[in-house]
């Protein structure tokens, strides 16, 4: 993919105007392939379908870069309702949250207070909450919030992006915490992040191996079969128990591979986004893989 194409979709993902407009459009452009629905009930069906195949899930109530307390409070209430639903329906499912949805850009203490409300309820139900990692301008603040939360809670974790030069250093500080390892989805400056795909992939493999040799659970989140195959071989060679890690992929991506990994005895978790704030998430997926656009165009032509 050219950098121009990638930058184009990342640019769209950041447009406040388009993100706001898209909430009114409903799902268009084939977004329903990658977003499970708008309501809690629609997403429960998707979780149950995965659970029936032995696949666990993590739910993401879509939304980010919120600048209004009313909206952040609403997001928190929705997340609390999801936790109740997971508990009542006994779903094999945890939660993924974005701190900018919960007020990080408004006031850090307010965001921490929202997270504490969420983590208190989640802890009561023994549900794990993962903090997604957003763009680098929110990185330090996210780690600050996490450090405050981890003093009080053991049901919280976060994401480390292998495109960041500092990923290894941060991972070593977080070696006792459950972590999701990803490549990184935002456009970052060369001052802080690798831009070359080979460097990002090499770092991902290096960090994943370090984590697998450690003692704490790791979610290896990638659709890249080259990396997955290399790590499967590494796990075999080093007799690493399958209870120490899981593979994660996004809802709607490589479904056959998701099912196969679960059938072959690997822990597998599907990241399921839902809600009407789908535009930014969807544009980042197109930035990663414009072929997703081809799939959508084919559908549009043949249905
Ligand atoms: P990448 O896009 O690098 O593709 C590598 C190769 O894999 C391709 O060349 C192709 O061969 C194959 N491939 C990939 N997708 C395919 C497909 N659909 N069909 C066929 N072949 C395919 N990012 C972030 O910054 N913060 C976060 O919190 C998260 N959270 C997160 C959770 C989960 C569960 C996932 C899977 C990803 C994220 N990400 C993320 C996104 C992540 O950083 C990254 O942008 C994407 O996963 C894309 O990178 P990949 O490693 O998946 O493959």
How does the SSE layout of this entry go?
Elements: H1 3-13, H2 16-25, H3 40-52, E1 56-61, H4 69-88, E2 93-97, H5 108-124, E3 129-131, H6 139-150, E4 156-161, H7 167-173, E5 179-182, H8 197-213, E6 218-221, H9 225-237, E7 245-250, H10 255-263, E8 268-274, H11 279-288, H12 291-302
Parallel strand pairs: 1-2, 1-8, 2-3, 3-4, 4-5, 5-6, 6-7, 7-8
Helix pairs in contact: 1-11, 4-5, 5-6, 8-9
The structure holds dihydroflavine-adenine dinucleotide.
Give a structural overview.
With 303 residues, the protein is of the alpha/beta class. The protein has a single domain (33-276), classed as TIM Barrel. 50% of the residues lie in helices and 14% in strands. The chain has helices spanning 3-13, 16-25, 40-52, 69-88, 108-124, 139-150, 167-173, 197-213, 225-237, 255-263, 279-288, 291-302, and strands spanning 56-61, 93-97, 129-131, 156-161, 179-182, 218-221, 245-250, 268-274. Strand 3, helix 6 (139-150) and strand 4 form a beta-alpha-beta unit. The chain is globular, with a radius of gyration of 18 Å. Mean pLDDT is 91; it is low at 299-303. The structure holds dihydroflavine-adenine dinucleotide. Dihydroflavine-adenine dinucleotide binds at residues 132-133, 159, 161, 182-186, 221-224, 248-250, 253-254, 271, 288-289.
């Amino acid at each position: 993919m050219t950098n121009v194409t990638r930058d184009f979709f990342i640019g769209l993902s950041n447009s406040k105007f388009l993100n706001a407009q898209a909430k009114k459009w409903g799902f268009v452009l084939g977004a329903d392939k990658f977003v499970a629905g708008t309501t809690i009930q629609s997403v429960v069906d998707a979780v149950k379908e995965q659970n029936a195949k032995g696949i666990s899930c993590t739910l993401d109530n879509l939304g980010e870069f919120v600048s209004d307390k009313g909206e952040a409070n609403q997001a928190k209430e929705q997340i609390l309702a999801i936790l109740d639903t997971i508990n009542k329906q006994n779903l094999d499912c945890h939660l993924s949250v974005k701190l900018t949805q919960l007020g990080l850009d408004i006031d850090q203490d307010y965001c921490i207070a929202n997270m504490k409300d969420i983590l208190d309820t989640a802890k009561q139900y023994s549900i794990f909450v993962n903090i997604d990692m957003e763009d680098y301008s929110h990185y330090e603040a996210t780690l600050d919030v996490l450090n405050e939360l981890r003093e009080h809670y053991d049901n919280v974790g976060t994401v480390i992006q292998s495109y960041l030069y500092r990923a290894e250093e941060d991972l070593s500080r977080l070696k006792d915490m459950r972590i999701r390892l990803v490549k990184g989805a935002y456009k970052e400056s060369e001052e802080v992040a690798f831009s070359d795909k080979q460097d990002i992939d090499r770092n991902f493999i290096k960090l994943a191996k370090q984590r697998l040799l450690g003692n704490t659970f790791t979610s290896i989140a990638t659709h890249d079969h080259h990396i997955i195959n290399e790590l499967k071989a590494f796990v075999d060679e080093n007799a690493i128990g399958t209870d120490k890690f899981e593979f994660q992929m996004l809802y709607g991506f490589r479904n056959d591979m998701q099912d196969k990994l679960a059938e072959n005895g690997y822990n597998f978790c599907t990241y399921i986004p839902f809600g009407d704030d789908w535009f930014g998430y969807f544009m980042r997926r197109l930035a990663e893989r414009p072929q997703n656009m081809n799939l959508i165009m084919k559908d549009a032509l043949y249905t």
